[in-house]
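Sharing a chain and its predicted structure for anyone who wants a worked example. Both blocks are below, sequence first, tokens second.
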Amino acid sequence: METFHAKTLKGLENILAEELRLLGADNVEPVNRGVNFTGGRALLYKANFCLRTALRILMPISRFSAHNEQRLYNNISRIDWSQYLTVKKSFVIDAVVFSKVYTNSLYVEQKIKDAIVDQFREKSSLRPPVNTKTPDVRINVHVNETSFLISLDSSGDSLHKRGYKTKSHIASINEVLAAGMILLTDWRGEKPFIDPMSGSGTIAIEAALIAGNIPPGVFRKKYAFEDWLDFDPVLYERVMENLPPTREINVPILATDIDGESVSMIRANVRSAKLEDVITVNKQDFMEYPEQQDNAILVINPPYGERIVVADIEAMYSGIGSTLKHSFGGSKAWLFTSNFEAIKHIGLKPDKKLTLYNANLECRYIKYSLFKGKLKEHKSNSIM
């Protein structure tokens, strides 16, 4: 059993923890922006391939305290780097630093690089090369004041980079956030799904992957662990052969946008994900949606208002509320935004409010249960 750490976005820790439990991870512990867990190498391979809400998966190899740069150098030198590197394996160091002692992450990376290179030079005249773009081994360093955690990054590129996007909207949310938002609704493909302000199609595509139990790794060409010295290709192949089966998607998934260029972008991404038979893409103004008779789930990611004047953004959010009220009775809608003032113009009573982050932008994710008619009549019918 080994210890691992899966990184995620703030607010998605419990969703990621549940994903890991379902994969068979042990000792699952949500922490800030991540989840600690234990398991074997098969689980590490499977987690990279299957997790929807993980950004990357790290394998810690050393923890220590270093109050100055010499102690940092000495502690790094005590690690047997021949377990992880050869002179033919390139590497890079990614440091995240929260410290009053170490104020420059680049300096920390340089000091650690020197210690690793010097260890190899002492044993031979050769050294492993540094490659900042496509390294064979990516070393992750987390510094909290004088405490250091050194890990190997098993993922390589962030896992939100699924590989299906050919084009991206300027305000597009990333795939991990989109998947997390969908999983938070408890929707798993049982009823129609609508992404009415689709942008690049990310939410609709992630919804289709969830409904079909299609792992996000199917689009990925390579993971960093495939370049590790102890990578087991036979075990990896066995893991891939024993993945849970996909499911047939029997509910409509609709992605629409008012902008023609965005619609073209959505279609291109849907084609790239090979989901043309699953996702219907239309050019549609949300405020003019025809009445939906079915019990649908809507996940709405409207503009937040950075490039829209206040009066227009207030009118837009008021229109969203009105459309939800009059066209989607019997459905449930989730709205994601960082514009806390604009939310007030929705005019509907929310069931739930969650705090999520789009990069460093604090956002609200709000659930509305919609019904036809007046609230008083709805309550009366609910009692009966």
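Comments welcome. The chain has two domains: 2-153, 175-212+247-383.
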